Amino acid sequence: EVHLVESGGGLVQRGESLRLSCAASGFTVSSNYMAWVRQAPGRGLEWVSVIYTSGTTYYTDSVKGRFTISRDNSKNMVYLQMNSLTAEDASVYYCSRILVEPTGWIPFDIWGQGTVVTVSS
Amino acid sequence: DIQMSQSPSTLSASVGDRVTFTCRASQSISSWLAWFQQKPGKAPKLLIHKVSSLESGVPSRFSGSGSGTEFTLTISSLQPDDFATYYCQQYKTYPWTFGQGTRVEIK
């Protein structure tokens, strides 16, 4: 069975850094596209970042230059390094998988339970 | 960026009702549209991808249609487990964007 488990969330001060982790089981992250999606309290969903099997990465504009997505194939983990955090970054952060099939992509077919990031001013 | 707009924001319905909600894209996204269901305090769940392809295990009462800029999600007979918030999402172009959601509540 496939699973994603996020960790690393917490309370930080504005301007500080945090690294989120996502542990995958039942599949290998190196063979899949992986992404982070966030949800601010009481708000909708926002795609944050994606990492391809090739290592190519993309980010939403509001986090470019501050966040970095990466993976450790040996540990089957995905990470999100978040620097210079602001109040607008406070959210539940979800790790998710994107399936790439010959007929097209299947976005966010599995999700973790989320990890909460709170930013204090 | 492609803006996704869902309507209505809230829908009040009864068990057994047929419900339909709409998602509009600010520009054509071809068929690169997905629908998610989210219940309070839980992660979203993928229901449909590529407009109308039902995910494994998703009940057949859910169906999707549309193309280009206008899309619909239909629940043919609303069940108690279906009261939740539904999001559409385009994955044609980065940044991938979600609609603001339609909350289905008990009438």
Keywords:
heterodimer; A: 121 residues; mainly beta; 7-stranded mixed beta sheet; 4-stranded antiparallel beta sheet; 11 strands; 0% helix; B: 107 residues; globular
Number of strands of chain A: 11
**Element string of chain B (H = helix, E = strand):** EEEEEEEEEEE
Structural shape of chain B: globular
Largest sheet of chain A: 7 strands, mixed
Biggest interface, chains and residues, is: A-B, 21 and 22 residues
Q: How is the quaternary structure best described?
A: heterodimer
N- to C-terminal separation of chain B? 36 Å
Average pLDDT over all residues of chain A? 97
Radius of gyration over C-alpha positions of chain A, nearest whole angstrom = 14 Å
**pLDDT < 50 stretches of chain A:** none
Indicate the percent of residues in helices of chain A.
under 10%
> Number of DSSP strands of chain B?
11
Average per-residue pLDDT of chain B, rounded, comes to 97
Main sheet specs of chain B? 7 strands, mixed
- Helix- and strand-based class of chain B? mainly beta
Helix content of chain B: under 10%
